[in-house]
Amino acid sequence: MRALEAGAGALLLELDSAEEVAALHAELLRRRDAGDVELGGVREIVPAARTVLLDGVREPRALAARIARWRIAPLAPADGPPPVTVAVRYDGPDLAEVAALWGVSPGEVPGIVGAITFRVAFCGFAPGFGYLTGLPARLQLPRRATPRTAVPAGSLALAGEYAGVYPRSSPGGWQLIGSTDAVLWDPAREPAALFAPGVRVRFAEGAA
Question: 127 with 193: CB under 8 angstroms?
Answer without folding.
Answer: yes
